[in-house]
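Suppose you are handed only these lines of text.
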Amino acid sequence: MQIYAPDYYKKFTCIADKCPITCCQEWKIAVDNDTYNRWCHIQPPKDMESHHAALSEYTYDRDGQHIITLTGHKKCPFLLESKLCRLVLAHGDSILSETCSMFPRENHDFSNHTEASLMPGCPAVLDLWQTEPLIQFPNVVSQLPADDIDTLLFELRDQIIHLTQDINQSPELILMECFYILSEFPEQEQLTKALLDDYFSVETVTELSTAIHQMDFSLEDMLYECNELLQDLAVNYQKEGLYTHFLTPLLSLASQISAGTSDYDLIDCWKNFHDELKKYEPLLHAFLANEIYSDLLLPEGNLDSMIIHMQWIGMEYAAIRYGLFLSWLNSGQTSLAYETVRETIAILTRMTGYEDDDIYEYLENSFESLYWEWGYFAMILANIR
Ligand code: SF4
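From them, the structure of the protein bound to iron/sulfur cluster can be written out as follows.
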């Protein structure tokens, strides 16, 4: 089957011991059955802190899945101080489970082709986009059967990617436009190529952008809601003691804001912060374009699931932006450093990298309705330019 990937894909190399946020800690590292069966017969390296008879004994069972048991410091037990992997050093890459050998690569197998991409939870991937933010995505549509409803979904995704890469519009405005257009389609009798061309024409998008610019958005409501969203997304990670170095200062400030005891004039601060954030707009466009490419349309996906995934991407972006705001406040409102942006995107996308079923469950449990009103989506992304 033909495999398609964006242009950055082949440029990726794991920076291993130089990685500032290694993927070998604070994660649920799954071990597939084949690897687990092999591990049952392989002795662990001699220098392990806690010694078991076989590698498989360093895993536990969670809902029928084998997971590596992390150390008290939430690290993979095979991770050395030097940030290299004991297993790879002793046996080579072939010893690794599928999760370890794949990350940060992600494949989606559609009926006619496979799409590969890299995940933003890896700092080395963000470095690639920071250096070259205009990603070239593969032209999948030209290879798919014409006049097919599934092909139209890929065309719809392409139109959204194209809009997301328009650096003359802010990422927030683009997200609002895309969610508006997407939410309109289920009300149409049929999705057609003509309808897509009309909705994404320069005239329609300009009209939409003008209309959004004329709306009044409340910064206060956005700040309040994003403060709640971030705390809600973090609650389980906090309980499990994960990402504490990153989350503790953010959540401490977030709870002061919720209690009304922070000394900041948040609205004034936000305006300064937003100017700082603009430095990273090319990276944010690249990040969003990649999220749309890899997560908007999944195998078996349809228009409804695309709307749900767009909500998730919008929420993820709002949480990242707000997380950056809190980090910037905590750092004394100085220049927003690239390392902070990279860490925030990497950790928050790891935290929101849910399986599809979990996304639905989270949205159903956390919001009045699974499908959001456009007004709510726009509210959490307020402050456009
Ligand atoms: S997060 Fe990326 S760069 Fe860091 S160790 Fe994992 S794969 Fe390598």
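What can we learn from it? Residues 14-16, 19, 22-23, 103-104, 122-124 surround iron/sulfur cluster (CB under 6 Å). Residues 24-102 form one domain.
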